[in-house]
Amino acid sequence: MAKRLGQQTIVLDKQPIVLAGAAIVGRKEGDGPLAKYFDEVVDDEYAGEKTFEAAESRLMRDAFIKALEKSGKAAKDINVILSGDLLNQCTAASYAFRDSDTPYLGLFGACSTMSESMLIGSILIDSGAADYVACAASSHFCSAERQFRFPLEYGSQRTPTAQWTVTGAGTVILGKDGQGPRITCVTPGKIIDEGIKDANNMGAAMSPAACDTIVQHLQDTGRSVDDYDLILTGDLGSFGSAMLRELTVRNHIDLKSKHNDCGMMIFDLARQGVDCGESGCGCSAAVFSAYILEQFRLGLLKRILFIATGALLSPTRTQQGETIPGIAHAVCVEA
After folding, report:
1. pLDDT beyond 80 at 51
2. 0.70 cut: is pTM over it?
3. Is the backbone peptide bond immediately before 235 cis, with ω within 30 degrees of 0?
4. Which of 8, 175, 180, 251 is the most exposed place for a label (fewest CB within 10 A)?
């Protein structure tokens, strides 16, 4: 059975297996450095649907179906789907899975949703409450921009700290048995709020939470940065990543060359005009489900700490002068 380790970390006795993952992305993402790793690139921003919101649901549903195919499982084998997105009431996810005939739990962790779903799914499997779990997250540039910032038709100028919301979805299938990397321990994060109010500076809002979770995980486990092949955050972007490195140094931790960020990996920052990089639930979901799992399959990664980060942003509250809390959850994945 799972057991607590230190202040926040949970060690998993049964070590759930990441059986398979799938990622479907939009055209801009398909023009980036990780293009060859994605299962499908959709050229049409509407994905054959009538609205951007329906398109996002379509991407998530299709990624789920593809992940099932790759895992050798059927929908009836899945005990619960854990999923979320950025839209109000998590509608992208709930509409994506309304016909799945599978138990569903909707999650909102903003851009931390992928690691949150994997964390909860791992605990469910370790406890014996589930044998197989699907973890999924999505985002869409067009649906997110008009909900959180400005209508696309407004043509507003982007600030230097802005990030480009990924159009994409990722799904992983976790199981009690099978072949694949194992989830050995998880560290749920705390809400950290350092007073950031700029909705166009998500990296600054999220990096303190990422730092807090990394520091706590290393303290709880007694490990160092050198014990990992990769410490993968997502998605702080270039500004938030630089801020994270400064914050960890203040805590006597040097991330060295071990750190990378999903928000700097899907796009070519210099060529594709995405300012500080990318963001959105679909960012870390797609990077992990496609690129990272392939690196494990090739034997290039043995142990990583996957820390998806989220800005718990409410347009209503920020317009009322409120700050933007951050959250980050860590999942240790080992070959």
Report:
1. yes
2. yes
3. yes
4. 251
φ/ψ of residue 325, rounded to 5 = -70, 155
Same domain, 124 and 239: no
Instruction: Summarize pLDDT for 283-330 with one digit per residue, the tens.
Output: 999 999 999 999 999 999 999 999 999 999 888 888 899 999 999 999
| Max Cα-Cα span within the chain | 53
In CATH, what number is assigned to the domain containing residue 329? 3.40.47.40
Q: pLDDT at residue 193 above 90?
A: yes
- The 8 Å CB, 24+ separation contacts for 292-299 are 292/232, 292/333, 293/18, 293/20, 293/21, 293/172, 293/180, 293/181, 294/37, 296/18, 296/180, 296/181, 296/333, 296/335, 299/335
Average pLDDT (249-277) is 89
d(CA 89, CA 321): 22
Asked if 70 and 124 sit in the same domain, the reply is: yes
| Structure-block tokens of residue 5 | 């380790």
Instruction: Give kind and range of the element (H or E) at residue 63.
Output: helix 52-71
